[in-house]
Amino acid sequence: MIVSKRNSLRLAAVATLGVLSLGLAGTAVAATPTVSASAGQQAAAHATITAKPSVTSVRAWQDFHVTGTTTGLKAGSTVTLQQKQHGKWVSLPASVRTAHNGSYALRVKLGIKGLNELRIVSGATASPVFTVTVR
Fold it and tell me: What angle do CA 44, 47, 50 make, to 5 degrees?
C-alpha cells in the first residue's frame, strides 16, 4: 500500500476521532448512574408460588385439588398446571386466577398412569415440583 501525505492525514484524523469518541464514551458511561430494574421486573424476580395436592395417589380421571398461594404476583394473575411429559413441561388445560390475597384452588383430573411430576406456573415463576401417582 502506498502511503501518501493525503492518506496519512486521513488516517491520523480517523485515529484521533476514534480515540476521542472512545474517551467520551467512557466518560459518559462512567458518569451515567446505574439504572435499577423496574418495579415489574423486581416483583417477577421475587415472586413465589406454593402448591399442595389434596392427594398423593388417585385413579385415572378422578378429581383432586391443588391449592396454594402466590407472593409477588398481582391479584388476578393466572396460574396454570404443568405436567412433565417426555422430559418437557407441558401446560395442561387447568388454570385459574389468583384471589386478592394471592391464594388459588384448582380442580384437576389426570389420565396418564404412573408417577406424574407436576408444578404450577405463572409467567416465568414456577412452584416446586410435586408428584401425584395415577393408578
Answer: 150
